[in-house]
Amino acid sequence: MGCSPLAGDRYTEADVALLAEQIRAERQQSGQGPYGVHRYKGYRGLAELPWFEIDPTGSLRCVDESVPIAIDMHCHFGMSVLFKPELALDARTDRVRHLLDCDGTNPGCDLDLDIYVNGNFTDAALAELRRGTVEQGLWGSASARTQTIPNLLGEMDAMRVGKAVILPIAFNFPFGDDLTESWHQAIEVTQTRSRFIAGASVHPNDDQAVERLESFAKAGARVLKLHPTVQAFYPDEDRVMRIYEAAERLGIIIFFHGGRAGIEPESRHAYAMPRHYEGAFANFPNLPFVVGHAGARDADAMLEIAMRHENVWLGIHGQGVTQLDRMIRRTGGERMLFGTDWPFYHLGATLAKVLIVTSGVGGERNAIRQAILRGNAERLLA
Fold first, then answer.
1. Pairwise CA distance, residues 224 & 84, whole Å
2. pLDDT, tens digit (0-9, with 9 covering 90-100), for 150-188
3. Domain parsing of the chain, residue ranges
4. Any idea which architecture 35-381 has in CATH?
């Protein structure tokens, strides 16, 4: 156990053991589900699937015009915070360096679509991710400089994604903590409001959080990103209720990071346990909540909670094909939302999973494909 923070029923030895078992089991069971083995060499390797090809520029492209034009509910731009290293969000570069940079080598890195996506990070890739996170706040990140509006648009066009919700995060830094404002401004300057829905974020420790949210709503924000593990709060804490109350009054959707991904600091795992979200869902039944990553590696528990609360929507990013199939069987595809967590990953990684689990003889899941890729988001955002 070492220095794992245990605090009564907030985080227990059983919780720690469960995550370890989840990680072990997903590796052991990969490829044994209803869709068999789905392992590829990088994002370009997805061209082995029938919906994709490599275009003349060497990039992955979805070429099946029957695939619905999607709405991506979970995207970010490259980050420049704290000391605000220079980052031109309107620049185009030769290629995108995703944070899991699976196309940075030839052949690409091993990509298994039947495990939780973070399981594809090697130790070296995780070390690079940590370095990049520090660089974003100090002297600038080489990866972040490629995670720009033109580059995201190019990937969206290649993957048949029509719109994306852009989710900043508030870190509560003493300065340089203005992603909501700077990303909104970048969308305005590049005249891309027809493609991007600008989200917002506030920090639970900010005494002015409600006032900030009111200002963001006035500027057009529709979705509020809250990240329990990054912002170090429990979703059912009293101090966060004022934010939910304001969001409900303003017609704002709450988008949570949900569940333990397994790559965040262990000291933050407690905040993301699914049972800590249910108080928010139950106390605000008229407020829509999106659980990003559908609970991550705690997906089974989060799915059970979502089934008890009709105001809970499941962002599907990160889940493997077997888990997505399990979610579809429980929900019928309702309240499941396409999201990619760009620029952590290529849009095609999540799109491929949706296409795999909604394919089959007879097209019995065609309506579910439409719902997950587009229809459910249209209903939520209406």
1. 22
2. 999 999 999 999 999 999 999 999 999 999 999 999 999
3. 35-381
4. Alpha-Beta Barrel (3.20)
> Residue 6's pLDDT is what?
61
Give pTM, 2 decimals: 0.96
- For 284-292, what is the mean pLDDT? 98
Q: Is pLDDT of 99 > 50?
A: yes
Enumerate residues 6+ apart whose C-beta is below 8 A from 281.
289, 305, 309, 311, 312
Q: How confident is the model at residue 8 (pLDDT cuts 50, 70, 90)?
A: confident
